[in-house]
Amino acid sequence: MKHLLSIKELTQQQLLDLITLAKTIKANPAEYRHALDGKSVVMLFEKPSLRTRVSFDIGINKLGGHCLYLDQQNGALGKRESVADFASNLSCWADAIVARTFSHTTIEQLAEFGTVPVINALSDLYHPCQALADFLTLAEHFENISDVKLAYVGDGNNVTNSLMYCAAILGATMTVICPAGHFPDGYVVAEVQELASRYGGKVVLTSDIGAIEGHDAIYTDTWISMGDPTPLAEIKDKFAPYQVNKGLMAKAGAHFFMHCLPAHRGVEVTDEVMDGEGSLILQQAENRMHAQNAVLVTLFS
Ligand code: CP
Ligand code: NVA
């Protein structure tokens, strides 16, 4: 493993190894206190963040490394100088780059023109660290991850894409339920189906909210992702049947609710589900750090 740009680059064994390592680091943090001794990681963010920024910063510190946060105020990526020059300069000092960008192409360029590992901290296409943390969370509740039946409801976005790749590669079952016109990109779905047939996963996409029945966990995300100028009023009615509420959870027969956060309470999910017994949101948030630390330890080993 040279970079983590997308889940699709990983084999089933690599994914399982990352989940196992994340569990080990979570259980025995002291053993990894020096794993990143002397290493410096630059975190480059074009978009806001709470969980990703804090979990990387604190996680890197717990591994003995040092990190530096770069926002866009001291020269936006690709504006003051090219992404290629940015990447080659950062590689002179940093041992790895964590980047959250608008365009996935920017992350690919950082990997192409830099000489150090690049970790995707969210792009318009993917959110691999999120999906890793989410499947780590599921693995803490299900002995065999391939037994999991996950339903994703709402907008087909970067989070959906990474979750689909994970489900396909891990041999799990995932149903993606989106309003018409809001499905994940066709080529992503085609790649996911190819991986699912290779690894024994099952990924089904539909607009029929009735397909929610018979799932273990229901996952949703914002209906409007960062950088999308669509006003909520424009899509609200179309998305309303896809809101995760008590009725939908009951219909699904699901014990668990998942959300990558930030959530829009009363929009894509109700308070009673967010704060309900089966809500895994804080476990997911905590696991961001353990999953990312497993990625860092693997990239540096
Ligand atoms: N889930 C997630 O990536 O949260 P942030 O946008 O706060 O980093
Ligand atoms: N799909 C969301 C995820 C936020 C963590 C976005 O891209 O804004």
TrEMBL record:
Principal EC category: transferase
Record-listed carbamoyl phosphate binding positions: R100, H127, P128, C129, Q130, C260, L261, R288
One Pfam short name: OTCace_N
Principal place of residence: cytoplasm
Catalytic activity of the protein: carbamoyl phosphate + L-ornithine = L-citrulline + phosphate + H(+)
Pathway: Amino-acid biosynthesis; L-arginine biosynthesis; L-arginine from L-ornithine and carbamoyl phosphate: step 1/3
SUPFAM superfamilies referenced in this protein's UniProt entry, alphabetically: Aspartate/ornithine carbamoyltransferase (SSF53671)
The keyword Repressor appears for this protein: no
EC code(s) of this entry: 2.1.3.3
Positions with a binding annotation for L-ornithine: N158, D221, S225, M226
Keyword field contains Cytoplasm: yes
Start and end residues of each Aspartate/ornithine carbamoyltransferase carbamoyl-P binding domain: 2-140
Domain (Aspartate/ornithine carbamoyltransferase Asp/Orn-binding) ranges: 147-298
Keywords (A to Z) from UniProt: Cytoplasm, Transferase
Family: Belongs to the aspartate/ornithine carbamoyltransferase superfamily. OTCase family.
Descriptive protein name: Ornithine carbamoyltransferase
Organism of this sequence: Shewanella decolorationis S12
Taxonomic classification: Bacteria, Pseudomonadati, Pseudomonadota, Gammaproteobacteria, Alteromonadales
